Amino acid sequence: MAKAIEFFYDLSSPYSYLAATQLEAIAARHGATVAWKPMVLFAVFKASGNNMPAAVAAKAAFMMKDLPRWSQQYGVPFQMNSRFPINAIKPMRLCLYGDEQGKAGPVTLAAFRATWAEDRDVTSDETLRAIAKAGGIDPEQALAAIERPEIKERLKSNTDEAITRGVFGAPALFVGEELFWGNDRLHHVEAALAR
Amino acid sequence: MAKAIEFFYDLSSPYSYLAATQLEAIAARHGATVAWKPMVLFAVFKASGNNMPAAVAAKAAFMMKDLPRWSQQYGVPFQMNSRFPINAIKPMRLCLYGDEQGKAGPVTLAAFRATWAEDRDVTSDETLRAIAKAGGIDPEQALAAIERPEIKERLKSNTDEAITRGVFGAPALFVGEELFWGNDRLHHVEAALAR
User: How far apart are CA B96 and CA B91, in angstroms?
Assistant: First the structure.
């Protein structure tokens, strides 16, 4: 049976973006699959009692220095989104529709790029269409799908599942029932996959 | 001029211990010096508005899995201290006396080992004496020194300095005025030293 990485993320989380850029290469190195699982980070923070990192001014200032260091380390573009904090509910529903269409990876990576490399407004229909197109799904069908109750429900159930399984921040990765938190733990994810 | 790493830590922080175990090898690789700067993490959390990581139950549960992973990765012993959360004021003053005696590194590492590898009560005179001895300073002189006003003041001024320079958690490392937070950023510290 192929090993699996479950990747719980919120598109509004820049560290989730950083992790996402590395995920397919990690999966390929270990013959693993990736389950892309968007969740609503605000609800996760609320349920766990964790505070939003950017709510602490000194931590937010550190993050503005830290994120470009990882971007340089990974060799991926990064640009702080000028609309931060972002409501990423709509594009996350788009990712779930992408998953239905067998395009979870391409749609999610396109959504992350729009948010964290291109400084786009990911709540606008124009950007949502561009993400769909870049991810290889039909833009108009995607815009209609994100209003479907079962898509909305799936985002909610992913969030509930994450909370139940002990997630308190993003990104959160599982290999089996082992939880890993942060792009800075991807080497621990790899160690778990190698076991 | 030799490059310098300023290492702000609290002995009660297990991630500070993990970083401390790696510090001298990193400094040696880059011809750098280490300035060991104990600070009172509780005061740093209070000033920055950050919450204590272990105050979030799900995060504390993750840490209990995460800390052994780093211990394994670094090849250093780790044992959760059964007295956590720890008041490390006295052993941190001991480290400052060790610094006066030109033994900051050995005393600090001995204090970290007692706390995070040997599950000792670092508030007891017996353990303080053992730390002093292991660090190469006189145990009785050390126990007397930690009551000196200028040693107490130095712990306070380190803490104030950390807060002023943007520290919000431990360990916090500086290369020049660049702040790095966490043992998981040691590779960024090395990149800064290599520039």
Answer: 9
B99 Cβ neighbours under 8 A, 6+ residues apart: B36, B107
Interface mutation vs chain B, best among A8, A18, A173, A184, most B CBs within 10 Å: A184
Beta strands in A11-157 (DSSP E): 32-38
Range of the domain at A158: 3-194
CATH (domain of A71): 3.40.30.10
Q: What is the mean pLDDT of residues B20-28?
A: 98
* Structural domains of chain B, count: 1
Q: Across the interface, which of B51, B62, B166 has its CB nearest the CB of A51?
A: B51
Q: With contacts defined as CB-CB under 8 Å, which chain B residues touch A69?
A: 188, 191
Q: What is the ipTM of this complex?
A: 0.95
d(CA B147, CA B142): 9
- pTM of the shown model: 0.96
Query: Is pLDDT of B93 > 90?
Result: yes
Task: Choose the closest CB to A168 out of B56, B69, B178.
Answer: B56
**Chain B residue with minimal CA distance to A166?**
B58
What is the reported pLDDT for A54?
Answer: 77
Residues facing residue A5 across a β-bridge: A34
pLDDT at B8 over 70: yes
The SS3 assignment for B95 reads helix
pLDDT above 70: residue B1: no
Task: Provide the pLDDT for residue B53.
Answer: 77
